[in-house]
Amino acid sequence: MEQPNTTYIDELSGDNLEFKQKMIGILKRELPEEIEMYQSQIQNSNFLLAADSVHKLKHKVSILGLEKSYYLAETFEENLKNNSTQLQNDFEAILKAMHKFVEAL
Amino acid sequence: MNCIIIDDEEMARAIIAQMIANHKELHLVQDFSNAMQAIKFLNQNEVDLIFLDIHMPDFTGFDFIQTIKNPPKIVLVTSDKNFAIEAFEYDCIVDYLVKPITEERFQKAIQKANTAQISSSKLTTEKTSTEDNANEFYVNIDRRLIKIEFNSVTVVEAKGDYIHVKTDTKNYIVHSTLKKIEDKLPNDLFLKVHRSYIINTKKIIDIEDNSVLIGKEVIPVSRANRPELMKRLNLL
Question: What ipTM was predicted for this assembly?
């Protein structure tokens, strides 16, 4: 499984450490909120709303350099729009890896 | 150029704000986490460029564009590549950035915004005009453009910020105004009979004093519009 990284954030920040810290701060705050929202919608079988949450999370997936996972998230989003939870476990494994990585930043 | 950002995701706003800060010619006036706040702001302020997320809860980027009167240049920002075709049907949209945005791609969008020769008269929320003899129009529903044949429309009813487009087989709820759709519909087929109703005159079953029957629906006819309706009828 591919691992999250900060390559995009590093490239974007350059020498601007203040901006880099700002980005990490937002990630630490926003990612758990978005994951929680997604989990709540899945638990309530609100698949269309869950698809919206996955859509939003896709940006964080790509920010953390998870290129292959991004395509999986994209397919999972489409599945949810069609009332299917296929790829749920794979997607949630990605979320777990992202959460763990971001917490350690 | 004075800019604003509209995106429900803080991370996206922060990234765009940083890129704006790196460009001397750009000035970030404000950022917004939802479209409604931005609409209120734009009612009292003018900007040159908007960075607009498409996929937002409740009110999408396209809803936003259709709501504001004279949209400035807009750069769409989204995680979804599927909206590209729809995006370029709006004259005000100068570019389309897919997240995560790179500095290089952002630079290109700014160049496009700078060189876009958009006269104020061309800035319109209307879609690019279709052929004069078109037999259909398109409505934006849940981020999909749905084709509706003029001949299939029976009634269009205004309800608040939405219109109900009723056809022989299906009804559609569209975020638009009666005035906008009236401009799109062919005059020889459609007539506004009441401030809230436009009817397809070919679908009339019968007429009473102040109402018409279309299908099973009784549509009110206002006193002011009745003479024009009577003129359209092939009376014996």
Answer: 0.91
Set out the domains of chain A in order of their start, with CATH numbers: 7-104 (1.20.120)
B10 to chain A, any CB pair closer than 8 A? The answer is yes
Residues of B in contact with A27 (CB under 8 A): 11
Q: Tokens representing B129?
A: 């005009």
Q: Are A64 and A4 in contact (CB under 8 A)?
A: yes
Supply the angle between the helices A88-104 and A17-43 in degrees, to the nearest 10: 150
Residue A54 is inside which H or E element, if any?
helix A47-63
CB pairs under 8 A between A and B: 43
What class has domain B2-115? alpha beta
Q: Does B107 reach chain A within 8 Å, measured CB to CB?
A: no
Cβ contact (<8 Å) for A27 and B11? yes
Q: How many CB atoms sit inside 10 A of residue B128's CB? A: 9
Predicted TM-score of the model (pTM): 0.64
| pLDDT-wise least confident of A4-18, A72-86, B28-42, B107-121 | B107-121
B67-79 mean pLDDT: 87
- Do the Cβ atoms of A23 and B11 come within 8 Å? yes
- Sequence-separated (6 or more) residues with CB below 8 Å from residue B54: B60, B61, B62, B76, B77, B78, B80, B83, B87, B143
Distance CA A16, CA A24 (A): 13
Chain B: nearest CA to A81, how far in angstroms?
12
Contact (Cβ atoms closer than 8 angstroms) between residue B39 and residue B82: no
What's at A102, amino acid-wise? V
Q: Taking CB atoms and an 8 Å limit, are A56 and B14 in contact across chains?
A: no
| CA–CA distance, B72 with B68 (Å, rounded to integer) | 9
Q: What is the CATH number of domain B137-232?
A: 2.40.50.1020
- Three-state SS at B129: coil
